[in-house]
Amino acid sequence: MSNLAPSDKAYVPFVSVDNMMKLVHHIGIEPMLAGLADYIEEDFKRWELFDKTPRVASHSEEGVIELMPTSDGEVYGFKYVNGHPKNTREGLQTVTAFGLLANVGNGYPVLLSEMTILTALRTAATSALVAKYLAPKGADTMAMIGNGAQSEFQSLAMKAIAGIKTVRLFDIDKGATRKAAKNLAGLGLNVVECDSAEAAMEGAQIITTCTADKQYATILTDNMVGAGVHINAIGGDCPGKTELAPAILERSDIFVEFPPQTRIEGEIQQMAPDHPVTELWQVMTGAARGRTSDAQITLFDSVGFATEDFSALRYVRAQIEGTDYFQDLDMLADPDDPRDLFGMVRRAAPK
Amino acid sequence: MSNLAPSDKAYVPFVSVDNMMKLVHHIGIEPMLAGLADYIEEDFKRWELFDKTPRVASHSEEGVIELMPTSDGEVYGFKYVNGHPKNTREGLQTVTAFGLLANVGNGYPVLLSEMTILTALRTAATSALVAKYLAPKGADTMAMIGNGAQSEFQSLAMKAIAGIKTVRLFDIDKGATRKAAKNLAGLGLNVVECDSAEAAMEGAQIITTCTADKQYATILTDNMVGAGVHINAIGGDCPGKTELAPAILERSDIFVEFPPQTRIEGEIQQMAPDHPVTELWQVMTGAARGRTSDAQITLFDSVGFATEDFSALRYVRAQIEGTDYFQDLDMLADPDDPRDLFGMVRRAAPK
Predict the structure, then answer these.
(1) Distance, in angstroms, between B253 CA and closest chain A CA?
(2) φ, ψ at B59 (rounded to 5°)
(3) pLDDT band at A121; cut points 50, 70, 90
(4) Rounded Cα distance, B349 and B328, in Å
């Protein structure tokens, strides 16, 4: 090892957007969604192990920037994620994200990854994993209300993990529906474009809502929702942003990731602070019951939790091993003698 | 713009360790320390503007991993930093760090940078900036107690910013002193290697303590500290880690960055929770007095605050403009149509 060339310790594997897309196609979208769901389920099942810091949010008029850290005691992870609903007007993503894993024992990062695509994948994988537990038996049709960036991922994850065969699309913007239908063509799903939310929900056992406006909206009203369905509510995910009429929440059994966070960010921000909810990890470990009757409405009040990102990063870290789908980033100063940082800098002076 | 090539928006300028060292030599170490001090001072002077979230720490037996976010309302920044005192035994850095700036308006990152070197520089620049305000007039000699990775940066910053001409080095490990003396040779400082802390302090108007053990240590005892000096206490920077005898704190006027953080992490964790302190930003704006007499002992109880990292990243962002000292990182997914993330992924499939 020379005094100038960084050692292996100085490098952090980085998965760029380009490499993430290559990894997705190397693995296949559906197998990747299923693989992510396995990791997410595994981590939900060891829920009590995790350091569950609430996310650290920096709010502004335009949106929010958040850091979502967690740790299982051996590996530490965090995600940087923004949410700026008006971004699309300027041709920007509403949500962009990247994430990091580090070794708890020495604090050295071990993975840096884009997470815009990965978050879309893990959100969909989580939804489908939860639907596998909560949707009525034999569910094969999903209403997909809101056909933005997340909709195709949701549809395909529900196919890969929860047995959905038909997706019924609706968006107030017909162009979004057209785009989603085009993107889903030829992927083995029966895709139906619908003219109204009501039409999309015909015959659907799973109803997914995923709209983006930062406001209290009512995408679903009470009379639209029949008995026995599973509602997968994705879009109500920050303070002041909900999609469901409170009356639907009253009729539903509500399942959440991490109650302290969901009560602030989820649909249940509309309810009393002690409104009963069931924690997903308890359903997965068998400590709590999921669906108990055919007539029951189950509701996954999804807001996204740090452990899901952690699981997704763990999955990516395992998958890139032995591949070329990452680059080594010279991100950590690593002098030969750790006390000799200055010497390293000084020796790097041009001759 | 093709459907596959990322647009400009997808790229985040990244300053690697190698490029940071190149930037340091391009600017010059002393001008860079002075430039950093200017940015740090500027941000201290607009202190009330900043979103001062406490740092988010994940503690383990071996050390700590922290996220330090802040924002001035237009730019958001955070630093990832670990502290693992036992790392040096395995040839690793005690502290490694990287940081990020993002646009508050749309949440898009605008800079990712190594911060192991940058933190060393900003810590030293902050110390020297504070000494400029608090050290006795005409101070020209500094005792540097603890000759680890930070010591040369401290010495050079005190030269560049606070007018120090002589540095008197001491470390319980003579090898560390040797290393620091060698690194500082030929840089315009009079460097004296000393056999004891007492010897190092002879004739010194500024006393810098910077030792790394994670424990309550007493690097300075009460009888070692004479009247009129300025103490720059760097190493007491996390719960359970201090360097000064409480009696010294009793005799000193204590200046701190952000009281709620310093009371937990700094030397004053040894004192009552209401022990009087002065906030540095108030000294810099003129709202509070700094040194008021020749006999007074001033003490900077330094723990490092998020705004200093923010200032340092701002400085780097300004300095790399028009240079080659960064690379563009493909970190943000940026589809032509922001709602078409899935389409972007699908179109990236190999033919």
Answers:
(1) 31
(2) -90, 145
(3) very high
(4) 23
CATH number corresponding to B8-117+307-347: 3.30.1780.10
pLDDT-derived band at A218, boundaries 50, 70, 90? confident
Those residues with Cβ within 8 angstroms of residue A351's Cβ, 6 or more apart along the chain or in another chain: none
Touching A: B residues 29-58, CB under 8 Å: 29, 51, 53, 56, 58
Domain boundaries B124-304, CATH class:
alpha beta
Cross-chain Cβ contact A340/B179 below 8 Å: yes
CATH code given to domain A123-304: 3.40.50.720
* pLDDT at residue B1, as a whole number: 35
The pLDDT value recorded for residue A7 is 61
Mean pLDDT to the nearest integer, A129-148? 97
Q: Which residues pair with B298 in a beta bridge?
A: B230, B253
Task: Please give the Cα distance from B125 to B37 (Å, whole number).
Answer: 5
Q: Residue B340: CB partners within 8 Å, gap ≥ 6? A: A149, A179, A183
Q: What is the pLDDT of residue A322?
A: 94
Q: CA geometry: angle at A30 spanning A28 and A33, to 5°?
A: 105
ipTM: 0.90
Q: Do B8-117+307-347 and B124-304 fold alike per CATH?
A: no
Residue type, A259: P
From A349, which residue of chain B is nearest by alpha-carbon distance?
Answer: B25
For chain B, the structural domain boundaries read: 8-117+307-347, 124-304
Instruction: State how far the Cα of A162 lies from the Cα of B199, in Å rounded to an integer.
Output: 74
Q: What is the pLDDT of residues B33-43, one digit of tens each?
A: 999 999 999 99
B237 is catalytic: yes
